[in-house]
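Task: complex structure prediction.
Instruction: return structure tokens for all chains below.
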Amino acid sequence: MSVIKSSAKRQKFNIFPYILTLPTIIFVALFTAWPVILSIYKSFFLQRMNIARFREPSFIGFDNYSFLFSDPNFLQVIKNTVNYVIGTVPISIFLGFFFALLVNRKLVGRGVFRLALFHPMVLPMVSAATIWLFFFTPGYGLMNSALRVLGYTGPENWTGNPGLALLSVIIVAIWKNSGYYMIFYLAGLQKLPGDVFESAQLDGANWWQILWKITFPLLRRTTVFITTIAFIDAFRTVDHIFVLTTGGPSQASTVLLFQLWQERFENQNVGLSSAITVIFVLVLLVFTVTNYLISEKED
Amino acid sequence: MNEKAINGRLFNRVGAWLLTGLTAVIAIFWTIPVVWALVASFRPMSEPMKIGDVWFGSALTFANYERAWSLAPFGQYYINTIVIVVTILAVQLVTIVLGGFAFANYRFAGKKWIFFFILLQMMIPATALLAPNFATIRILGLYNTRLAIAIPYFGSAFGVFLMRQAFMDVPRDLVDAGTMDGCSWWQLIWHIYLPPSFPSLIAFSLSSITWHWNEFLWPLVITNSDAARPLTAGLVRFTQLGEIGAQWPLLSAATLIVIIPLLIIFLIFQRHFVESFLHTGIK
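Output:
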């Protein structure tokens, strides 16, 4: 075994650090790099496992891609995904910020309040969704009962209504994630310098001005960070869709990852699902790189 | 004190009470789902829910839990989840400590490129790659095993990154002193790098456990029998059993079987969880 004797020796070629990183390299190569390459390759082929004559892959160029972008179903899925992201990300972040302001004050039972707001984040999404399934039940479901008291007379079958199915999964995601974002804002709030607020108060600024002109701008970095994780989470979490709507009715609540699952594991369409994987990976890469550039600019 | 100041104080006080009231209302709303599930799980099966009657029944009963437990092998699901989570964490701890040590302690050709290659994993979440990874698992002959669920997570770019950061904070003098004393590489890790990096290690562990305990989609596609199925996939399968229908007390009991241990652990180690989430930014 190589023993580090001096910094001079460290300069010499040493195979040891490569051996140390090798396990990680192997797993990243096998389960991140290779699958990306494999997906790009397979996306140029027609291969469907459930149709005998299409079991063997045949090269079709960009046909999978051109099919997807002219398929009204897939365009609907893209639209749903955009709606889902717009519906969950800003509201969860806003609620996280709002909750953090509420429980950052000195108040009796602060610990209990915080716990109440962030406990959903440790629950598995599927169990959270199972509970919410009841809330959306027509008739005696709690959500409908409460809304009826408020004078609501609209459709009650939330998860089965094309206009409400996506909203149902959005509501569950907001309930689950807001408290998670709250803890990042809480940590950010506690690091803010107190004297800035004192001088602002002495200058006669009201709480609203302090909030939007001082607190929020000072928490910019926190907001950029939370936005990143919120976006990625919105793209990669579809567990609640399996429980609540299974993507329906008629695809009304199908988002990109759910469509990917369906294409590969229900329709057994290897070529098409590979193309969707490539598109999905590209979206994620563009997003993370953009976000990285933004946060670099901040520094 | 002038009148304006007194009025201002009064206003602040009333405002503070209103805000506390608002906080309480929101907090209560936020807990309703779990509280309802808890209450409903003790409701006798013979009393179906009606409009305005969805909470307590005429008595409290454990029958729903017994029935849920007998309808699906939750014990087996528990064992599977625990085996998967512990396997992942155990392997990760080894790979991330070795990787972090390599990047923090050595200079070597191509270091930057290797690091960038590993970080690819942080940009492309494993869930996005479930279709090609499914093919890989089949080739490896691991389909429908607990190992299949765990193996894609054995290397963790994020963990390597986190340990590298922690190790780089260890004073160089300390490392050099250890080297002078004749420490071997593993003694350097064990006695010099690891002790001050413990908080990072704990933070990573709690995040890893929570994340993999809750994961659903990958286990769903890579298993097809109860021998390998974890709690999450098992619960969804349970909810889809034909005989369950809209038996909410039974569904609630099954859900609570899955979440109660998690909630209790979370309540006990709340601070650690929150700190680790802050530290790692992953669930």
